[in-house]
Amino acid sequence: MDSGTSQAFNVTYSDPEGDAVIVEWYVDNILVSSGASLTFSPTNNDVGLHVMGIQTF
Q1: Residues 1-57 pLDDT 10s
Q2: Could you tell me whether strands 23-27 and 30-34 are parallel, antiparallel, or unpaired per DSSP bridges?
């Protein structure tokens, strides 16, 4: 991705028992957001490869 652009990420989730689900978004193993979506907008400092991940609980 180029600096100054953005990319939206979304996740759909459910719990079989109907319990609330918490979603956390990580970039390079650093928590950056929570909720069902994340918009990643890199800056010039973000040039290079990154690992995007989510954790649900």
Answers
A1: 888 899 999 999 989 999 999 999 999 999 999 999 999 999 999 888 999 999 999
A2: antiparallel
Answer yes or no: are the C-beta atoms of 42 and 1 closer than 8 Å: yes
Q: What percentage of the chain's residues is helix, strand, coil (to nearest 5)?
A: 5, 40, 55
User: Which two three-digit tokens encode residue 13?
Assistant: 């989730």
Place of tokens 């953005």: 6
Count of CB atoms situated within 10 Å of the CB of 47: 11
How far is Cα 7 from Cα 15, in angstroms, rounded to an integer? Answer: 27
Q: Cβ-count burial of 38 within 10 angstroms (0-12 exposed, 13-18 middle, 19+ buried)?
A: buried
